[in-house]
Amino acid sequence: MIDARSPGADEATFIRAVRSGDTARFARLTERHRRELQVHCYRMLANYEDAQDMTQETFLRAWKKRESFKGHAALRTWLYRIATNACLDFLEKRNDRTPVTVGLPGAGSEVRYLQPYPDRMLPEDPQESVVARETIELAFIVAVQHLPPRQRAVFVLRDVLGWPASRAADALEVTVASVTSALQRARVTVREQLPDRRLDWRSPATHELSDDERAVVRSYMDAHERNDLDGLVALLRDDLRFAMLPEPGTLVVTAEDAVDGWVSGGLFRRGYDDWRCVATTVNRMPAAALYLRIPGDPEYRLFNIAVLRIVDGKVVELTGFGAAGRPWLGLPPTL
Question: What was the pLDDT predicted at 14?
Answer without folding.
Answer: 80
